[in-house]
Write a structure and sequence with these properties.
The chain is mainly α and 170 residues long. The chain has a single domain, classed as 3-Layer(aba) Sandwich (Rossmann fold), CATH 3.40.50. It is built from eight helices and four strands. The strands form two sheets. The chain has a two-stranded parallel sheet with strand order 1-2. Strands 3-4 form a two-stranded parallel sheet. Helix 2 packs across helix 4. The longest helix has 19 residues, at 121-139. The radius of gyration is 16 Å and the shape is globular.
């Protein structure tokens, strides 16, 4: 959440000459409603089940594409195993310094259903630290880990491209 997955993913796809999919946008198209609306009307459990189904379908039917998932996607169900399938996919964890992440999310919170109701930056900081604590174990399972804290989207995409060129054993 807030690390630049969509922007960096779009740039990476362009660099690689591949199609790009933002999982949230695919879900919105499939469901015919915004992520915020799905959360409000159906709840978190429904959303996570829908997300897992759409992710599975996308990865099964698309090859040689770049996919940006939501920050919670890898943590639920068997999603990380599906994403991290070394035979077909290259999973990248975009790391961002906590303070930078908190500042970005503070500015964007109205557009993010999980944090839209947070009204104090201290509460957001607690939310981010809690979620990162819960998610980091799963995130660290990614085949590639790239710190993008000090990189703009173009440089981050280039760094990922270079890391993907290296043999998978690195």
């Amino acid at each position: 959440m807030g690390c630049g997955k969509t922007t960096i993913g779009q740039r990476l796809a362009a660099l690689l000459g591949r199609d790009f999919y933002d999982l949230d946008q695919v879900i919105e198209s499939h469901y015919g409603a915004s992520i915020s609306t799905i959360f409000k009307e159906k709840g978190t459990v429904y959303f996570r089940k829908l997300e897992a189904k759409v992710l599975g379908d996308l990865l099964e039917h698309q090859t040689d594409v770049v996919v940006a998932t939501g920050g919670g996607t890898p943590v639920y169900g068997d999603n990380m195993s599906l994403i991290n399938d070394a035979k077909k996919n290259r999973c990248v964890y975009l790391k961002v310094d906590n303070e930078v992440l908190i500042q970005r999310l503070w500015k964007q919170r109205q557009h993010r259903p999980l944090i839209a109701s947070i009204s104090a930056i201290n509460d957001l900081e607690e939310f981010v630290r809690k979620h990162l604590f819960e998610r980091t174990f799963t995130y660290e399972m990614a085949q590639l880990k790239i710190d993008v804290t000090d990189l703009d989207a173009d440089r981050a995409a280039q760094a990922i491209k270079q890391a993907c060129i290296r043999p998978k054993s690195l």
